[in-house]
Amino acid sequence: MAYSYQPRDPRAKLREVTTRWTTSMRVAGRAPNCAVVFGRDMPPGTEPHARAWLVGDRRPGAEGDRYVILDDGDVWRARPGASPALDAAVAAWLAEPNDDLVTLLARSLSDARLGGAGWLEMAGGVTRVDDRRQEPHSHDGPDRRGS
Q1: pLDDT tens-place string over residues 5-19
Q2: Is 1 inside a domain boundary?
Q3: What is the DSSP code (8-state) at residue 6?
Q4: CA distances in angstroms from 1 to 6, 22, 99, 110, 135, listed in the order given
Q5: Is 4 a member of any domain?
């Protein structure tokens, strides 16, 4: 029988995993390495809305995903073939942690603690991602209004 762990609140688990990683990276002496603009339709020259961590998947046999990790725990993943600006259609916000992300973060942190760059990529300019406020968010809990 295969065991498959499903967190009760996947988005909260994603935030827990990534905020623990960002805190550990700061302790290891690393800082966010890219500027982020939310919304692909923003005019060029728009001031960045946030600072984030741009991490490349360097694991042997990995597909080469790139992740933008925000300090609040949200994660934007761009699949291989995406442009350097991370604006291809194969990029999206993660709704829950997956094995690839968790393994990547562990290896990245290990590299940073051993004096490496922590698999942080050099971000050229501003990274544009979809506006996460437009992502659909479901309410999985019980409805307590009027009960």
Answers
A1: 777 899 999 999 999
A2: no
A3: -
A4: 16, 35, 19, 32, 35
A5: no
